[in-house]
Amino acid sequence: MDGIHILVNMNGYTKGARNEIFALRPAPIQVMWLGYPGTSGAPFMDYIVTDSVTSPVELAAHYSEKLAYMPDTFFIGDHAQMFPHIKERIVLNTLGSTQANEIPPDNVAVINTTDFRPVLQNTDIKKIKETLMTPSSSSGQGSAAVTVSVTVAELPTTQHIETMISSGMVQTTLSNGLVLQNGLATNQLNAKAATGEEAPSQILVTTRQQYGLPSNAVIYCNFNQLYKIDPSTLGMWVQILKRVPNAVLWLLRFPAVGEKNILASAYQLGCPQGRIIFSNVAAKEEHVRRGQLADVCLDTPLCNGHTTGMDVLWAGTPMVTLAGETLASRVAASQLTCLGCPELVAKTKQEYVDIAVSLGTDKEFLRATRHRVWQARTESPLFNVRIYASNLEKLFHRMWEKQAKGEKPSHILEWPHHFRYVLGGGSSNCSVSSAAGSTTTTTSWHKKALSSK
């Protein structure tokens, strides 16, 4: 009745789901997309939007829907628009604490802002570059040169910042007149900035001191809800901590009641006291920004960090994952592959541990990997919503083309190279609606064929 050609299910079996609408078959094509990490198992859903890494065709039997591949990854995050102040960062360093042209740690104390001009005008800023030799393949065969660069603000002392944090002050003024805001205070000063609705305008300071993290340790992190940590995963994490003596694991009280259970189980596995540190759940902006303080994120293999994985990657922190067979256990592998870091995707539990240990014990490997992730955030398609929207529209159009020809739904696995789709009107218009809560959106387009030259 509404003329909907393609109806999109963004809820699946999560809160607010409206599957009864889809069961009535109001649209000729019905599609699962993004919001639910798995198959619907329902005969009234025709396609699931996914990709070749998340849902390899050899695992198609796990899905009731036909697979419809996006060319890069089916996952997307709007982090570049929500958190533009994390596109760049300046590392804080005390004069004389490092040797000349030595790169200080890039994740002990950093500042982020959308406007670095006050920092550049009032502080001694220098860019330090270093060329590192790292393995050129995941097998470790051969080596490649990687040039790492870090922008550093040299301060006579960081005492003002340390006092601000220890005393819970909202901001501090340095001797050069530069005003810095305590990164813990965003929620108090700007509710919209705290939730990601708008970018903070202040110069934000984020340090390990704020969260009780040791400045000289390797910080492994995981910011997922604690129910995702099964005994096998915790066992791998304890193995990693045992093999990297100066490492700690940073988790969230998510929920708080889980903290004592995780600690008790870890100690039973032989984890030394004090090697697991918990922090409270934070508002979205702080949650993403503080991810910069970790060295490596250890993903939960059974159910990956989906949005959480995007959050930590936008912070520039590498993530190690172990790909399983279900959609929920392969999303991180898709994100890392799209980012250009497939070597961080393990095939076995032992490989997962070994990759994490290598990052924790090989400083050059860690720095080179962190540099690659930091650069790839803005260069790869992973956070590019414009490319994603265009490709999703092309995919919907291909679904409708099959329908218009009288074909039954079938896997859409290949992306042709000989044509592109131009947004606009045209004779082959179709409408796409999303049944997520009460939101309905409609898109139309037409196809323009181009010869390959």
Please give a quick description of this structure.
Keywords: Repeat, TPR repeat, Transferase. With 453 residues, the protein is of the alpha/beta class.
Largest sheet: 7 strands, mixed
C-alpha Rg (nearest Å): 24 Å
Count of runs of 4 or more consecutive helical residues: 14
What is the share of helical residues?
25-40%
Catalogue the unreliable spans.
418-428, 437-453
**Straight-line N-to-C gap:** 44 Å
Strand order of the largest sheet: 7-8-5-6-11-10-9
In round numbers, the mean pLDDT is 91
Write the CATH homologous superfamily of the largest domain.
Glycogen Phosphorylase B
Structural class of the secondary structure composition? alpha/beta
The coarse silhouette is globular
Description:
One of its GO terms (biological process) is protein O-linked glycosylation. Pathway: Protein modification; protein glycosylation. With 453 residues, the protein is α/β, with parallel strands linked by helices. It has 2 domains: 6-75 and 384-449, Rossmann fold, CATH 3.40.50; 79-383, Glycogen Phosphorylase B (Rossmann fold), CATH 3.40.50. It contains 14 helices and 20 strands. It has helices at 19-23, 79-82, 117-122, 159-167, 186-189, 191-195, 231-243, 258-268, 284-289, 307-314, 331-339, 349-361, 363-379, 385-404; strands at residues 6-9, 29-32, 47-50, 66-69, 90-94, 109-112, 124-135, 143-155, 171-173, 179-182, 204-207, 218-221, 247-252, 276-279, 296-298, 319-322, 345-346, 419-423, 432-434, 445-449. The strands form 4 sheets. The chain has a 7-stranded mixed beta sheet. It starts with 5 loop residues before the first strand and ends with a strand. Mean pLDDT is 91; it is low at 418-428 and 437-453.
